[in-house]
Amino acid sequence: MLSKMAKPMEEWAKTPGVIAVVNGGFFTGNTPLSLVAREGRLQAHNISAVTRAGRSYPVLRSAFWVDSKGNAQVGWIYHHAGEGQPRSYPQPLPYSSPAEVPLQAPKINSGIALKMDWGIGGGPRLLREGKASLTYQEEIFWGSGMRLDDKRPRTAICSANKQRIILYVTPSARLDELPDRLLELGCRDAINLDGGGSSSLYVNGESIHDQGRPVPAVIAVVLQH
Asked: Rg of the chain's alpha carbons, rounded to an integer?
């Protein structure tokens, strides 16, 4: 779900039909920097490049989506100019830290155009096919202020199988601890979402964890009548 103005999580939790809600991906002010798709419609793009030391680096970042058949998918995505939907790729760009030279953006014909029922972007990826796959370097989170080894609130989303999804929020964890924690819950594929002051969870209108930061995008579990 996306709003034109960032809203406190308490307000998101009061949306009619919402029984659970967590914060979504990264943003600045009222503008999402990560994918948001709802009911087959793209509402926000993943950023396609980041700036480090005055240079622009094309980047693929993680996304979690449910396809038109109801199956949960995780991959690295890139939104090419002029295309209505992002494309998924089997690997991120092979960056390491520090990367002195930006790599070329991925070729269009090497990606698969996505048809999503809904989706959320974030990063880095945490799990791939039941194994730890922490693509912090490749997704260029170095230089962003996000560290691997500091303890802070975290939010993640994972699939335990094609049709079972787990939303995870913790008040304190290192980023590099999340893969093992999610494996213990039975997760197979997972991505990190926005953390720190953004991490929030409401269930049945009750605050489980909320730090009061307004956010423009959330993942909501909605009761269907």
From this structure: 16
DSSP secondary structure code for residue 208 in this structure: E
Query: How confident is residue 98, by pLDDT bands cut at 50, 70 and 90?
Result: confident
Q: E strands along 27-110, which residues? A: 27-28, 31-32, 36-38, 41-44, 49-52, 55-58, 61-67, 72-78, 87-89
Q: Which residues contact 134 (CB under 8 A, 6 or more apart)?
A: 124, 125, 126, 148, 175, 176, 179
- DSSP structural state of residue 221: E
Please tell me the pTM assigned to this model.
0.95
Closest listed residue to residue 45, CA positions, set 66, 60, 55: 60
Q: Determine the structural domain holding residue 67 and report its residue range.
A: 2-222
Tally of domains within the chain: 1
pLDDT of 61 reads 98
Helices (H), the chain: 9-13, 178-184
Cα–Cα distance for residue pair 102/121, rounded to 1 Å: 22
